[in-house]
Task: structure prediction
Amino acid sequence: MNKEDQTARPEAPEAPEASETTAPAEPRARMGTSGGPRGTFVELVRLVLVAIFTAGGWQLGTGLNQEGGQLLVSVVLGSLVGYVVGGVIGRKTAVAVSAVEKEFQRVSAAELLSGIIGLILGLVIVALLSILLFWLPPVARYSSVALFAIVLGYSGYRIGRAKKDELFGMFGLRSRSLGVSSSELNVLDTSALIDGRILQVVEAGFLGGTLLIHGGVLRELQSIADSSEPTRRSRGRRGLDVLRGLRQVPSVDVEVVDEDSPDVDTALVRLARDRGAALVTSDTNLARVAAAVDVPTRSVMVLSEALRPPYLPGEEFNLRLTREGREHGQGVGFLDDGTMVVVEDGSEKLGSEVRVKVTNVLQTSSGRMVFARLDDA
Result:
């Protein structure tokens, strides 16, 4: 059983305190970041527009029968205008490309494919409607077709994304089966990162593929790491340390999915469902919600329970008693793996290490609980 009841979602069993100087993992470079690919893209757009405006200045000068210095001034002015306009248009285009890239990262392969199918169907309807508009004047006909293409194409794309499950179901397919299989794609919860043992599980090869980290999880970790409570702060920093360690494991690919959502739990379940992924969490309630919508879950706590060596009545071991139990005279201690041990007549030995003998072992929904008594011998 865990050391304490988990009253808050992100809380997890105790582990050694993480380093005090921990920073969140840096996101990968993309078009939207300053410098790098964005700077190259802006300069390419600027170069093209400088060439166009330079040629335009030369054409304008020759059209006005300018020669010598006047023609040179027209060419130079065209180059300067192209340089300024190219910088503005290049930066605006880079921002737009970054927004499109971010949107595509948020959309699963099945959702994107269903949206494209809906877009094609919308354009087919536009093509059929255009036949009925041939009797209109050319200006009205072309403007009407353009309007219908924009409205029906966008509507078809949105409807296709929203109805992807029904759309693929018509052909006997499931949207989850497209793209990466659920065994290769996992969404990590805040509690799984704070737990800390996920790093050892990944390094041992029991979990691999692509690990998805929702932006809300990063914000939760940062909030916990900035807490004024020392225990809570150490847990948040431990989660950030674990995330940084996962990014250094060569067998997995850590991907940050940043999307706006007021409820992180709902966003995690939706992300796992849309991507056909499994949800890795130590939160029992979140695991139940995920199971209710047919999202597979993986729990490090369940794995540790399965691998934990059983304690049989009569076994003896040393234990440090840390607090009193619920019943009078009981003392409570914890093993290294978080198992709670309730010791009869151990309240007088609080703060000291004693020798105990197991009397009974109970398996509960929260874990394993061991009952023992003091070994007088």
Notes: The CA atoms of residues 197 and 300 lie 7 Å apart. The domain at 309-374 is CATH 2.40.50.140 (OB fold (Dihydrolipoamide Acetyltransferase, E2P)). The radius of gyration is 31 Å. Residues 69-106 form the longest helix (38 residues).
